[in-house]
Amino acid sequence: MNAPSRRIAGANRHRRRDAADAVPWSLRVAAAASWRFLVVLTMLGVIAWTLGYLSAVTVPIGIALLLSALFAPLVERLVRWHVPRALATLIAIIVGLAVLGGVLTLVVTTVTASLPQLGSQVGASLARINNWLQHGPLHLPQLQQLLDKAVNTIQGNTAELTTRVLTTAATVGGVLTEMLLTLFVLVFFLYSGNQVWHFLLKIVPAATRDEIDVAGRRGFASLVSYVRATVAVACVDAVCIGLGIWLVGVPLAVPLAALIFIGAFVPILGAVVTGAVAVLIALVANGFVAAGIVLAIVVAVMQLESHVLQPFLLGRAVRLHPLAVVLGIALGLEIAGIVGALLAVPVLAVAKAAFGSLLRDPHLDPVDIDPLQPASARTTGRSRVSAVRRRVTARRRDSDDELDH
């Protein structure tokens, strides 16, 4: 190649370098961050789709994990009292089933006994509301047909509605299967949860096994804290609101209290929905004054919950921003419906504790973390040397001493 050709080739390479260098550094960083963000987002989407597709298996496992966080402290206490672990597991499950069966029996019995009376009360209340809408200040006679249909439906089709409910309940074999799977998984979580966790740790590289072990222990401790606090808050909500609507004279006070207890496990949205149901029943059964009193009771209890109970009981271990809670519940609803909304916040709490442990305390000794103590979920923000690194340091010191001698 002659000299002019070499000069032209050099000029072309120089121009190519100039074209690459002409891209601003901020744009390069934005492009690099964008494709990495898309990869992470795609991975999360695939995981969410897989969990939704396998919801018949993943949902029972998630519920069993929640129940194990609730009953594991009881099992460990019984074991410390020299009760065999198998018997302790059986006692915890029997106690849980007895409480659940008693609540369901009470709710079903109360609803069945109160349904005819409620139907007549609702029919009369709708008639009064219809009369007020026609002759009151609003003058809305066009709602006549709609309310008449509602009255006829409630008064004339109670038996048909009950039959449909029973028929639907009799055909939910899939729900029964998932309940049995949940119970089966719960037994093994309570009886041999440590063995299951150590087996899962074997797939983690040995270099990071201690860090993952600590993160998992802290995540479960956060779950224990969440379940304890949620059960306590749900009990307070159900007792206070249920007692209030009973004193007001609203029918179905016990089933409404049970519904409020269940709804409290879905933060923010659950309380709003179940409180609205209580206010609506008070409106159609007892009128505007009773509905206003029930609304005031619900708002007062919600304020007590949000400003006193949850901050005091949950503490810093599982504190989540309300935006994260709402978005998590929405995503859970999209993936797995009501059960997804129930599991969304516990998943966020576990992820927050686990990733916080990996970022802030990456070198802790797993033995120092008790997964059944809620205080173990809190990160210290200081990196301490793990037992493995202490042993390595001791071996190196001994080797240096031998070389010196």
Low-confidence stretches: 381-405
Quaternary assembly: single chain
Gyration radius (Cα, Å) is 30 Å
Strand content: under 5%
Provide the succession of SSEs: HHHHHHHHHHHHH
Which class best fits the helix and strand makeup?
mainly alpha
Spatial separation of the terminal alpha carbons: 67 Å
What does this protein structure show overall?
With 405 residues, the protein is mostly helical. The chain has 13 helices and no strands. Helix 2 packs across helix 3, helix 8 runs antiparallel to helix 11 and helix 10 packs antiparallel against helix 11. The relative contact order is 0.09.
Give a short synopsis of this structure.
By secondary structure, this protein is mostly helical. The protein has helices at 3-21, 25-53, 55-80, 85-135, 144-156, 158-170, 173-201, 209-248, 253-263, 269-286, 288-314, 322-360, 387-404.
